[in-house]
């Protein structure tokens, strides 16, 4: 079957159900083997809920194939854990449906986030990456800063805090 090209557009609050579905399909499938099942059972219901603040921020994107949402991700000036550091931007809530992995959706959305953050005057970007996505972010120029444990649904979820410099013409 021929697959349509990936389109990226800014999300809206109406995308909440489709984004939650992508988050659940992605995290629910791809985190297996990286995290213990008992940790996932507690953390997944919390982390697979689409974030309404991100969805309506104008800085969150969905990737579509043939009109259906198959990926998501975005950026914010606000830290995921709260607070703002001047000129430091944050990548947020990336996921691609497992049936659409490795076709460029995550990279297209990440590229758009880098370009916009640079245009808005940010000079660095951080991401709190899952263990699963560390290699993806490393290939986009992020370096590990520390292993961090995020409280999530009553358990601690091991993540990699990563950072990259934002430069024009990437
Ligand atoms: C991380 C994640 C969002 C990446 O999504 P993706 O849409 O598969 O990303 P891309 O397709 O842009 O890139 C993945 C790979 O496909 C390759 N690729 C991209 N377009 C391609 C194409 N047209 N043909 C073949 N390969 C391609 C990329 O080069 C990249 O390869 P690399 O990893 O060896 O560098 C996805 O793996 C995911 O959902 N992971 C689990 C959830 C997660 O951890 N999210 C992050 C939370 S912090």
Provide a compact summary of the structure:
The protein has 170 residues and is an alpha+beta fold. Helix content is 30%, strand content 34%.
Structural features, described:
- It is built from 5 helices and 7 strands.
- With about 170 residues, it is of the alpha+beta class.
- A hairpin with a 2-residue loop joins strand 6 and strand 7 (about 155-165).
- Helix 1 (about 15-30) runs antiparallel to helix 2.
- The mean pLDDT is about 95.
- Coenzyme A (COA) binds near residues 71, 95 and 102.
Which small compounds were modeled alongside the protein?
Answer: coenzyme A
CATH class: Alpha Beta
Supply the CATH superfamily name.
Gcn5-related N-acetyltransferase (GNAT)
Based on CA atoms alone, the radius of gyration comes out at: 15 Å
- Tell me the number of helical segments per DSSP (H or I, 4 or more residues long): 5
- CATH topology value: Aminopeptidase
Strand runs, count: 7
Strand order of the largest sheet: 1-2-3-4-5-7-6
Cα distance, first to last residue?
A: 33 Å
Write the layout of secondary structure elements.
Blueprint: E1 6-10, H1 16-30, H2 37-47, H3 52-55, E2 60-65, E3 68-76, E4 88-96, H4 105-119, E5 124-130, H5 134-139, E6 143-152, E7 155-165
Parallel strand pairs: 4-5
Antiparallel strand pairs: 1-2, 2-3, 3-4, 5-7, 6-7
Helix pairs in contact: 1-2
Coenzyme A is lined by residues 26-27, 30, 71, 94-96, 101-107, 129-130, 132-133, 136, 139.
């Amino acid at each position: 079957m021929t697959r349509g090209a990936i389109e990226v557009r800014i999300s809206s609050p109406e995308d909440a159900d489709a984004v939650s579905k992508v988050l659940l399909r992605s995290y629910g499938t791809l985190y297996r083997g990286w995290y213990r099942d008992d940790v996932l059972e507690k953390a997944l219901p919390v982390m697979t809920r689409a974030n309404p603040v991100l969805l309506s921020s104008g800085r969150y994107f969905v990737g579509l194939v043939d009109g259906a949402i198959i990926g998501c991700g975005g950026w914010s000036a606000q830290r995921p854990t709260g607070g703002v550091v001047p000129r430091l931007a944050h990548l947020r809530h990336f996921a691609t449906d497992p049936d659409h992995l490795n076709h460029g959706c995550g990279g297209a959305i990440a590229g758009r986030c880098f370009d916009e953050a640079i245009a808005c005057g940010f000079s660095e970007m951080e991401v709190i990456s899952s263990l699963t996505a560390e290699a993806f972010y490393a290939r986009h120029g992020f370096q590990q800063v520390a292993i961090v444990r995020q409280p999530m649904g009553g358990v601690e979820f091991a993540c990699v805090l990563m950072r990259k410099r934002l430069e024009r013409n990437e």
